[in-house]
Design a protein that fits this description.
By secondary structure, the protein is an all-alpha fold. 71% of the residues lie in helices and 0% in strands. The longest helix is centred in the middle third of the chain and has 25 residues.
């Protein structure tokens, strides 16, 4: 029986009905600035100015810069999960192998449309490595979720080797994310996808 691959509900609704118009402007401005310039390089004065609100409004809505960073990363994660779910839900007849490869396809498209400077979680981790920071759990949680996803998908291909296969797929995926973001060589996701297909084929034959 095929296990479900639909992502669990995200921690933050990407539509954020709880946000006031002013808070939404703050989060949108901060998200753009954090991704383009880096989290540490962007202060609340710049965020407020870009959002067209006062610092008092910013603090009234979020309380701290740390809270904005958490919401920025959690919202981006939620949008990615929804994007990936659409790729899997478009064709319910995808084979187990194709469902794995669809993750690589979705990531390549997502990076091209949303992540010209690389993976936002990887970039954020380069600046936030303290487990005590409230955003740290969002960053590592997103990567653990991806590992769990690959492990579940691998289990549909080769149940007996799901754990090891899932880790190998995760390594290929994350390597492609970093290589693509740094523009180290062309078609990083295409290469990772081909290697993933080889691993999946070998795992099926070994069953």
């Amino acid at each position: 029986m095929r296990t479900t691959t639909k992502p669990a509900p995200p921690a933050v609704d990407p539509d954020r009905p709880d946000l006031t118009p002013a808070a939404r402007k703050v989060l949108e401005a901060a998200s753009r600035l954090f991704y383009e310039r880096g989290i540490h390089a962007v202060g609340v004065d710049l965020i407020a100015a870009e959002a067209g609100v006062t610092k008092k409004t910013l603090y009234d809505r979020f309380g701290s810069k740390e809270r904005i960073v958490v919401d920025y990363l959690a919202t981006r994660d939620a949008r990615w999960r929804a994007y990936l779910a659409d790729h899997h839900d478009d064709d319910a007849e995808l084979s187990p192998t194709d469902r794995v490869l669809a993750v690589f396809d979705a990531s390549q498209e997502w990076m091209g449309a949303n992540s010209g400077k690389g993976c936002s979680m990887v970039n954020a981790h380069a600046e936030i490595s303290d487990p005590a920071h409230p955003a740290y759990a969002v960053i590592t949680g997103q990567k653990r979720w991806m590992l769990e996803l690959f492990t579940r998908l691998a289990g549909d291909v080769a149940p007996d080797s799901a754990r090891e296969l899932g880790r190998s797929l995760m390594l290929l995926h994350e390597g492609a994310l970093v290589s693509d973001g740094l523009d180290v060589f062309p078609d990083a996701f295409g290469r990772a996808r081909r290697m993933a297909a080889f691993l999946l084929s070998a795992a099926k034959e070994a069953r």
